[in-house]
Design brief:
heterodimer, A: 288 residues, mainly alpha, two-stranded antiparallel ribbon, 11 helices, 2 strands, B: 398 residues, alpha/beta, Rossmann fold, 7-stranded mixed beta sheet, 44% helix, globular
Chain lengths: 288, 398
């Protein structure tokens, strides 16, 4: 049982980190960023190239993934989403744009990095073994780093000036603008931060799960799932959604294994029931 | 002394000769007809590696043939032109792809890469006169009354009994566990593997464990299986992208038994994803290892690597389909636009296998399908060791 719980917590930590960036962008801009998974993949490939291929230290590669994606995110917001949000009278336009960005990034990544699964050397060797628990040290490190990043993100949003501005934007865009918050600037920072998180988690997890050019779509779907559980646009909700999904997966795959692959069937069925009872997810509106 | 008039005459003569030579060369090139060969399969998304290795193998081989002046079929010489269609692993798109091939007048198509796609295109292929080469295992595709599909590789129900028997006799395997992606191909391969294991009297300790194909962390999937302590863990129908992750999860959870798969894998992917944890992993390797491959295969690998930057071991098998089509058409030129002629030729066809030191190209499958609807490629069972596949044993279908 300890193993199942540990697996669930580890999965939850990585899922929460994946969902954070997605929910931030949704909260700030009301944009469902279908390209979030592709941004994760790009982050993974940057770390693969720098750490796996060039042999530079892992922290350098992780920083490069984060910065690269932050820049990509900022550019996408400035040149694609901002004009569309400004001119379009239909909210669906941003969804279509996000889907187009996802397809574009998919194609670019496939061309640039090929079709193969890629992996990098382990950042820490060895496995922790006790009577009821087996956990490789690199997973423990990744889990701790993920939790630290989540904590840093929450503190940044809570106490920094840009964080407060972005929270204000998420609560009421017009009111924030009237109070002097520079909407364009903080939208771009928010989008860049969301993309940065995707890149960072991609770079972090490439050491455990590797990366390939085709996984962007499934990653996005899983992130949407977590966001829907927690409540779209709520940071605490994304974290809760990540841990709930991780634990449900871990327990389901152990308890339901004799019945074949019904774990996700059960999760989706429960999600349908849950959403019919709480359509806004666990935590309702952005930042309460 | 050369006067101006003589110089002009010489110049004119030289120019005329040059033009004549260029004209002759270009007319010789222009005389080559075009033989269009199709591909319908998956080249995007999570399974992109399967179709991409097909397309790249075909392209390298076609370029090579064209570079040598084309292929002579009957009285005509043909340059090969590939027409490709990405079905995105969606049966509806596979049907659209096969329709497109028919509209382009193509009679020979490589693909699709998966079971449901291969089954979906069958009515189109049969009604439009197309022979197709799926990488899918359902026997119904190749067994009468079906007759237009030709299996492009060794099926798991052909390789699994041989592998399990070898491991039972040589490695003392008694308990076996299966894990498969929750998709039609891996599940049908798992069922075939379970049957083969039962026939050999092996104890099956796990067979219902499955995972979504887009799983990234396999530790929760592998935890309950490893607790069953099987001697052999079979990764049924595992995609090359998932194999290192499954191996790594099992080994890190303390599993010490054997691990095998009946699908072709890629050495670089295994090494990068699992490193030394993948040592001892047994799989049906691409139909070529250094011990058996010919100089022509070496050149193919070299050309592929130069063109695409990195070789894909799956292409050891995927390179064969185009050669089978071309060589069969050479054997019976009437088949160029008549697949019934092609079918007649398959029963007796034989040609030297350019990719191995000793061997022939021939159609097989009589035992499995009661008719010859499978291309013969060497069944090379390999063991992964320190970044390379080493040959465990070589078998043959039929």
């Amino acid at each position: 049982m300890e193993q199942v719980i540990a697996n669930g917590l580890y999965l939850g930590a990585q899922y929460a980190l994946i969902a954070l960036g997605l929910t931030l962008i949704f909260a700030l801009m009301n944009v469902l960023n279908f390209a979030h998974g592709q941004m994760y993949v790009l982050g993974g490939f940057v770390t693969y190239a720098i750490y796996g291929q060039l042999g530079l230290p892992f922290p350098v590669a992780l920083a490069a993934s984060s910065i690269t994606l932050a820049v990509v995110g900022a550019l996408i917001e400035k040149f694609l989403f901002r004009p569309v949000v400004r001119r379009s009278e239909r909210e669906e336009s941003t969804m279509l744009l996000a889907a187009a960005v996802a397809f574009f990034l998919d194609a670019v990544i496939l061309l640039a990095f090929g079709e193969k699964q890629r992996g990098v050397p382990k950042i820490v060797s060895g496995v922790f073994v006790s009577d009821g628990l087996i956990m490789p040290y690199d997973r423990m490190v990744v889990g701790i780093v993920a939790l630290a990043m989540i904590a840093a993100f929450v503190l940044y949003m809570q106490y920094s000036k840009p964080g407060r501005a972005m929270r204000a934007l998420a609560q009421d865009r017009v009111a924030a603008q009237l109070m002097g918050v520079k909407v364009d600037r903080y939208s771009m920072i928010g989008f860049a931060l969301g993309a940065l998180l995707a890149g960072a988690v991609g770079g972090l997890l490439v050491t455990i799960t590797g990366v390939n050019s085709g996984i962007g779509g499934p990653i996005s779907i899983k992130a949407f799932l977590m966001v829907m559980i927690g409540g779209a646009g709520v940071v605490g909700g994304a974290i809760a959604g990540g841990f709930i999904l991780g634990m449900m997966e871990s327990v389901g795959l152990t308890v339901l294994r004799e019945y074949g692959d019904i774990t996700y069937l059960v999760i989706f069925a429960l999600l349908m029931v849950f959403l019919s009872i709480r359509p806004n997810g666990l935590m309702g509106k952005p930042w309460g | 002394m050369i006067n101006r008039r003589t110089a002009l005459k010489s110049l004119a003569l030289g120019a005329a000769s040059t033009l004549a030579i260029v004209g002759a060369l270009s007319s010789a090139h222009a005389e080559n007809k075009t033989l269009k060969i199709g591909f319908v399969g998956v080249t995007s998304g999570p399974a992109a590696a399967w179709g991409t290795s097909n397309v790249r193998s075909m392209q390298v081989r076609a370029d090579w043939i064209n570079e040598k002046g084309g292929v002579k079929i009957g009285d005509d010489t043909y340059n090969i032109e590939l027409v490709t269609f990405d079905d995105q692993k969606d049966p509806k798109r596979a049907i659209a792809g096969m329709e497109k091939m028919a509209q382009e007048g193509i009679h020979y198509v490589v693909g699709p890469n998966v079971d449901d796609g291969a089954a979906a295109v069958r009515p189109v292929a049969e009604s439009k006169g197309i022979i197709y080469f799926p990488y899918a295992f359902p026997k119904a595709l190749y067994t009468p009354p079906a007759s237009n599909a030709v299996l492009g590789m060794v099926a798991n129900y052909q390789s699994a009994p041989a592998i399990y028997k070898y491991l039972k006799e040589n490695k003392g395997v008694k308990k076996i566990a299966f894990v498969a992606a929750n998709e039609s191909d891996p599940l049908s391969q798992r069922d075939g593997g379970v049957e083969a294991a039962k026939a050999l009297g092996l104890e099956i300790v796990a067979q219902n464990d499955t995972y979504p194909n887009d799983t990234r962390d396999f530790t929760p999937v592998m935890t309950p299986i490893v607790q069953q302590k099987p001697d052999l863990l079979v990764l049924s129908g595992v995609a090359p992208a998932n194999a290192p992750l499954l191996i790594r999860a099992a080994r890190e959870l303390g599993y010490e038994g054997l691990i095998s798969a009946e699908t072709a894998q890629d050495a670089t992917v295994l090494q990068e994803g699992a490193g030394e944890l993948a040592n001892g992993f047994i799989s049906v390797g691409g139909a070529s290892t250094p011990e058996i491959r010919s100089a022509e295969m070496e050149e193919f690998i070299d050309r592929y690597t130069k063109k695409y930057g990195e070789y894909n071991d799956e292409s050891n098998t995927k390179v064969y389909a185009l050669d089978y089509i071309v060589e069969t058409l050479k054997a019976n030129p009437a088949a160029i636009d008549n697949v019934e002629e092609y079918k007649k030729t398959m029963d007796t066809f034989s040609a030297p296998n350019p990719f191995v030191k000793e061997g022939t190209l021939k159609y097989v499958g009589q035992t499995s399908f009661t008719q010859k609807r499978q291309i013969s490629v060497p069944m090379v069972v390999t063991e992964f060791k320190d970044g390379k596949f080493e040959t465990l044993f070589v078998g043959e279908v039929d």
